[in-house]
Amino acid sequence: MAITELTLLLLLAIAVGGALVHWSPLPLPILLVVLGVMASFLPGLDDIAVDPDLFLLLFIPPILFADAAVLPRRDFVSTLKPVLLLALGLVVLTVVTVGYVMHWLIPSMPLAVAFTLGAIVSPTDAVATVATTRLLPLPSRIVHIVNAESLLNDASGLVVFKLAVAAAATGLFSSQEVAGNFLNLAGGGVIVGIIVEWFGRGLRQRLISLHAADPVLLTLLSVLLPYGAYLAAEAVHVSGILAVVAAGLWASGQEVKGLTAEARKHAREVWLMLSYVLNGVVFLLLGLQLRRMVTGVDSYAPVDLMLYAIVLWVLLMTMRVTWVWVSAHLRFRLDWGWSGSKTGPEPKRLLLVSWAAVRGSITLATALSIPTAIAAGTPFPERDLVVFLAAATIILTLTFNGVPLPWLIRKLAIDTGEENLQEEHAARAEIARAAIAAVKLDARDLADPEDITFAEQLAHQYEGKLELLEGDPGHASQRATHIALRRRLRLAAINAERQCLHELHARDVINDESLRTVEEELDERELVSSIRVDRG
């Protein structure tokens, strides 16, 4: 199938999946994978092959960058210890354990190849994890731990994978050399990512200072930034994925100075659309590839293949559950704590962190990037089996970890806490006081009675916000009712304006351009009028 038709078909499937998810018990990422698997049985879609290097370059950098950039830096730092234990410690443990166990279970699989398999299946998928948990009622600390882990272990897993493939190709393995190469690849990736983000932010800052930038240009540069970090890192032979994650984390909370409200709004809308489409394409391509990956092994009996896959999934889950629980209690004993509680780690929270172990796009791309041959043209040992086990791991984790995750979250009914809500309310109250002070200060120079009346009304509106946030609950509720009534009246007036506008256009009194211009203004007013009451 031509690339143009395939692209349009993928976009249509994303739109269909986005509509069906409202009636489906499956989260959107898993639903799209299912649609991709079903589509792989259609003529023309049964032989879709994706270049793994192209896949990693086109789709993964912007998705990981967007997820890393919205991860709160303060909360990331506060969860750094459990995140590093999962993203580094658990990855190393997984590679070593899977390597020895699968080599023992399948003697024909060399140890270096078994380590390669361990590196492929070790990272949880950042794309699937973030997309699955984004709209679910989870405590913020768990969200930050799971999301940060999945971002970092993608990079650590890929670094270990490169080293394992090199060992399988040469037959040589040195723990000291592997450790040194790991530090070079990982450390180099972090440095390159920070440098590229710093340079990109400086470039946009310079354009703003020269009055040579508009919202579209600034947004385009921000979209190109993760690609620049990835390509720069790969050019100097360090981890491109870790460079992208580092760039995103470094960009978090460091907004370019001088951006207009229009530029910020434009960037948010573009990134929202880009993330939605790229995430959808990734999961659909994952589904399209799975059937071919699973059916690509013909040298083993189906029963044996099923046994190997189940053993691998059980092994991965056993290691994860054990690691999470042991490390959490050990850190608590050392007075580090997991959730800030003095009574020790909460079992419900540990269970959620343990179960959020979906594998996805990174595992797919990594497995497909295994070379077909090593030195002197010798076929890569057991390549088809490794690819099959990687695909089976994706299917099993999506089925047994991803599908029940929303149900498990609701069943456990963990208190999500109100730290963020209280922090947000405190910030809104503080900025309302600042606005009142600014209005009263400027109002001292007003002479016209109408201007003075407007200033008093404006200050009164901000005082009403303070009453909603900090006032007596009874008075706040009454005021919220009044605000809702006034908002309903404003929306009714705007709807009448819009209806009249379209009638004028239908009668050819105004042209299309006038229609668009006025309707954009009505849309902006409607959005402002539709702000939730509890946000003032």
TrEMBL record:
One of its GO terms (biological process) is regulation of intracellular pH. The chain crosses the membrane at residues 55-71, 83-106, 112-136, 157-176, 182-200, 207-225, 231-250, 270-290, 305-330, 350-374, 386-409. The keyword Ribonucleoprotein does not apply. It comes from the Bacteria. One of its GO terms (molecular function) is potassium:proton antiporter activity. Keywords: Antiport, Cell inner membrane, Cell membrane, Ion transport, Membrane, Sodium, Sodium transport, Transmembrane, Transmembrane helix, Transport. Its main location: membrane. It is a multi-pass membrane protein. Residues 12-410 form the Cation/H+ exchanger transmembrane domain. GO terms for cellular component: plasma membrane. It is found in: Cell inner membrane; Cell membrane. InterPro entries: Cation/H_exchanger_CPA1, Cation/H_exchanger_CPA1_bac, Cation/H_exchanger_TM. Pfam families: Na_H_Exchanger. Na(+)/H(+) antiporter that extrudes sodium in exchange for external protons. Belongs to the monovalent cation:proton antiporter 1 (CPA1) transporter (TC 2.A.36) family. This is Putative Sodium, potassium, lithium and rubidium/H(+) antiporter. The lineage of its organism: Bacteria, Pseudomonadati, Pseudomonadota, Betaproteobacteria, Rhodocyclales.
